[in-house]
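Section: Multi-chain targets

For targets with more than one molecule, the full set of components is provided together so that the structure can be written out for the assembly as a whole rather than chain by chain. Components appear in the order listed by the source. The example entry contains two components.
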Amino acid sequence: MYFFFQIALSGIATGAIYGLIAVGYSLTFMTTKALNFALGMWVMMGGMLTYSLHVQYGLNPLLVLPIVTVALFLLGIVAERFSVYPFLRAGSDVWVLSTLAVGFLMIDFAEIVWGRNPTPVPPFFGKEPVYFGSVSILPQQLLIIAAACATFIGLDFFYRKTLLGKAFRAVAHSGEVSSLMGINTRRVQALSYATAAALAGIAGFLVVPLTLAEPQLGTVLGLKAFAIAIIAGLAAPRGILICGLVYGAFEGLVSGYLYTGIRDILGFSIMILALYLRPEGIFGRAQEERA
Amino acid sequence: MSSSTYLKRLAAAVAVASLGAMTGAHAQEVKIGMAAALTGPASFVGTEIKRGAEVAIDEINAKGGVKGRKLVLIARDDEHNPVKTVAQYRELVEREKVVAMLGASNSASMLAVTPIVNDTLKVPVICPATDATEITENEAKKQGRENYLFRVGMYGTGQANFMVDTMVKKFGHKKIGLLNWTGGWGVTGRGELNRRLKEHGLTPVGDETFDNNDTDMTAQIIKLKNAGAESILNYALVRENTFVVKTKEKLSNDIPYVSAWGIAGPAFWKAAGTSAEGVLSSTTVTIDGPQSAERIAFINEYKKRFNEDMSAAVFAVGAYDAIYLFKEAMEKSGFEPAQIRAGLENIPEFKGLVKHFKRPVFTKDRHNAVTEEDMIMTRWTNGKLLEIKFDDKGPYVEIDASTKKYLDKSNMKLM
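Its structure, encoded as tokens over all components, is:
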């Protein structure tokens, strides 16, 4: 039983990372039907900033977190204005490429500023594992699971209880109608993009002590997270968390009981199958088309 | 300026330039070429090769050169890209007329140029870095033709043999687990390790893998532990191995972990920190721990000249030796590429920095200077990569000239 619980728990911890990143895709999709395809690179920026502030300048993580969040939020506002909005306004789909271009710019920028060598960032609560019976987990992993849950509870609250959140959902449902109802659609779009960027930054902040600070830090994480957002349904943030955790545990169990080599084959096959059977995602509700 | 005047001047300039090249000013120089990554993520490999060679060349020139002729290094940046390596090899040999070359920074580049070197360029190449077995064990060798490829670094088959033999024979481990990267190098290594275990009549108790994006290897490590592995052998690079040792630490797993030379440099300790304590790595050279006087002189000269410590000593030390091997061959056999090639096969003894070769460095059939007997097993010990030596009481490392610490064979901890 130790084996099962240990790999499941480690998997869930990895899954929480995926979930945390995946929700960013959902945020922008809900309001603009556009995705920030380079979200993984934004995670990297959060991680590298954390490295600079925490390791190079010795700032306390509690100070680093708000700086990273605000910095990425502002960067998100700027990026949305210049790389997404012009295309959305023109009714073009070129944002797919332009968001990626921004991501590659970020990687190049990071390589110039921080170099390409992976550098460690010490975990915020040390590296002594915490034990549940004989099953061990790193404090940083626990922190990520907690942060992922908190993020989703917070988002849920935001969408359901706050005026701005309701505005987000209204825009998600129909931009034109919301506009007629007096909602500043344009502002909601920019805000959702920037919020997704800020969340990616927070994910980077939390993840970098578990990985290494390097320009390629977020690329693959971003892809896995994308798969999870698709499986769960881009319009179902709560489903994304559940899906992320389950997917992480699934990865661990496949590696444990089957074979690491087929893990991604199975994972991405499930994604394709999910798209085929439920294009709106496992947790997504089909958009009702009304005449 | 009218176009005809411009053309005249250009023609004159070209004439003067070619005249300069023909008249003796440079005729006495002996050109040695290299093409390796000098920029990009693998630039540390090319840079170390270049620096090691520069130190050797300046030493030789300061003492009057080779038979009165000065050595010159012409280095090209192939950006770790085999296509560029091939083009630069051609350019260096055909235009610059280099008579010898130092190897590239990646095996793919060397495998791409190997047939061209043997079939058309015909200049001797000594590789300090690339370990793909087929670079020296190539078609020309199999067909009994003249083989221009030599190596002073690791070679694949030998390293896998050495890793398995050390653990099986010297540490007495019979239950070997494998944990390899699914990236290119890991695939080859996994095959080689399996082959050698089979030659010992052993089957690995577990044959696990992980891929590029894995940051947590919990499942694989517990499986190997449950399978009763006495040691785990691995082929991967710094990044992946950092995640392996961090996972091992999280699981309080102390099964000896042995990796190929990808982690035998300071970059690994920098990335993994104290999680790397006790990890073993096979290599050809370590500059930590007690050193010979010649090595110390080189280490100091390097630091003085480049104002930093070596990031991958094996490559710098190998390139340094390669230049001196060319010198020996030139003195003995002449300055033509074919003569240098023949000369390299005829060096009966060589006191190099890699080691003191008390037998012919290369022979007609053996173009790998470093054989399995010359490879060393090292242990990461408090940021230092210390050579593991053996005496009657077992394996030990020398923390400094006067402190000897024995290893517990079951977990590689210091006793």
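The two ends of chain B are 82 Å apart (CA to CA).
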